[in-house]
Structure formats: structure tokens, C-alpha cells
What does this fold into?
Amino acid sequence: MGIGEILGVRTIKISTSSPYSLEEFFEKIKDTPFEAGKPALVKDGLTYVIAFPQIDRNNQVQIIGNKGLFYVQRSVQPAGIDKMVANMALEKLTDGLTGLSGAFGSAKKKCMELAQNTADIILAMNL
It folds into this structure.
């Protein structure tokens, strides 16, 4: 186990045979059954991500990328501006203590496993 995994970093690179946009990639995978749940294309700030249902407020499997190169990752910030604002408010109220829950515990480990499982399923699709 490397330092990245200890800190909860899990990013799996996926290259596709065609230069799919994120939207096209989403169309290819949206009906696939994933243990992480049903994916959704979500506006996140200035861009879009493919997001799976949150495990808790600090753990979510997300897919980012474009032009045939995508990354499945564990994110500590759930996608969507509404969730970002709510998390920022909680962080401010607790002096950052609520963010620590994303760094430790079983939810972090589960999210990392789901990210790997999601990537394995997509890789098996040979897109």
C-alpha cells in the first residue's frame, strides 16, 4: 500500500479506442449496472463530471476526462454546486473537523474499492 492509498487517493486511468467526449462516454456506460450505483452527468463548477451516488458527505466515485482519456476516482468533494456550498458551510462551522471524516474510516475504504470496481467494469467493456 502506497502513501496515496493511505491518504485515500484512488485514481484509475481509462483510455478508450475512440476519442469520446465525457457526454458520449456517459451515454456508453449509463445503463451498466455498477456496485457504486447509477451514474449521473452532473455540473460541477464550470465543468461536468460523471458522479455516482454519495457514500457519505465526503466520499463519492466520480469520472472525469475527455477525448478518450478518463479517470475513475474517489472524490472527497461530492459533485454539484449545492453540495459544495453545504460542505463549505459545515467546514466553516466546525473549523474543518467535518472534513476529516473523508480521510479516515470505512466509508473511505469502501469508496476506494467502488472506484476500482467501477474502473474494472468499464475496462471490461472495451470501449
About this structure: Helices lie at 3-6, 22-29, 81-93, 106-124.
